[in-house]
Amino acid sequence: MNGHSAMSMLRFSTAGSVDDGKSTLIGRLLFDAKGIFEDQLAHVEEASRRRGFDRTELALLTDGLRAEREQGITIDVAYRYFATPKRKFIIADTPGHVQYTRNMVTGASTADVALVLVDARNGVVEQSRRHATLSTMLGIPELVVCVNKMDLVGWSRERFDEIVAEFSALAKKIGARGVRYVPISALHGDNVVQKSDKSPWYDGPALLEWLETVDVASRAATGPARFAVQWVIRPQSDSFHDYRAYAGQIASGTFAVGDEITVLPAGITTTITHIDLHTTAIERASAPLSVAIRLKHDVDISRGDLFVPTASPTQVGNELRARLCWMAQKTLTPRSTWALKHTTRWAKAIVTGLESKLDVATLDAVHEPPSFTLNDLGTITLKTSVPLAFDSYADNRTTGSFILVDEATNATVAAGMIEP
Q: At 104, which helix (H) or strand (E)?
């Protein structure tokens, strides 16, 4: 394995209000890290000229749809890849418009770091609060507030400190921890890839320097072991009449040959005899590997069952309380029914109650609302048609999450995070 392939991967999302400069920031990172092809740069330079810019508009690097390039807005989530000598990166540039909050959830759901941009002139606005709240709800381990356009406020330390104080109060209210603040000018590259001499009062690293060194050792690999069965591999011929395995991806923790496990929700206990990685037998495997597991006993197991160490069980039940981001034009009301997908298991679910809805402007809870509409955030209760084996989202982002699907249209209508 060469050094390049051994580098760690960091996934990060960007979010902010309209015109806070998030696409420009990502364009700056891609440009300065030489993460774009010559033909891409040529297209962006041409689009910049058509729009009357006297410079290359780096924001256009991430606006993947032609309509976005022409309108100067971000609609969909744009994923980009780049690498430095120290680390590989996957970026999700998410929309800033309130009507695209659901897209922001999609882009941030797998992120290790969330970058929230704040315009130094405007301070913390409603979308800043919405994105910070969503990032915290989604359990993103690191939150970085990029105070952008510092050049337009004369690199004022006082203005930066005001925004830090305002956002810190917000972070405390929503339960965000370990928030980092960086003063930047994405347009000119100050404190983005290299430290700038325009902010001698800032003693932290440049943004990319921090992204290259932040510890993203997977919490999933060290937590309680969880494995959702995706596919039951049955004997295919007389030559393999004894081969029966259960394939899927390890959601968290480590499984080893000889481990005693419990198959949930049935509660059957057995022992791991083999772990196969492609065609190679291995003694142990950790998240996020996809493997096939063979067991000592021939038990009734199907897609959606969850393997857990007998000593570290999950909760099992058909009643859930969850935080929800509603992502559909159709309204959510009590007693409505949906298809629910949790890990690899599908179930029917009925909404038994709408506990509260978050007022993003004030961060106050509106109790027992009559309905949820597009982009609403809140807490609900559900009852499923079959028992599920689950953790709280705070303990496990995979086994603690689910989606709701409209069976009539097959559209995903909500993302849910299970509460303890």
A: helix 101-108
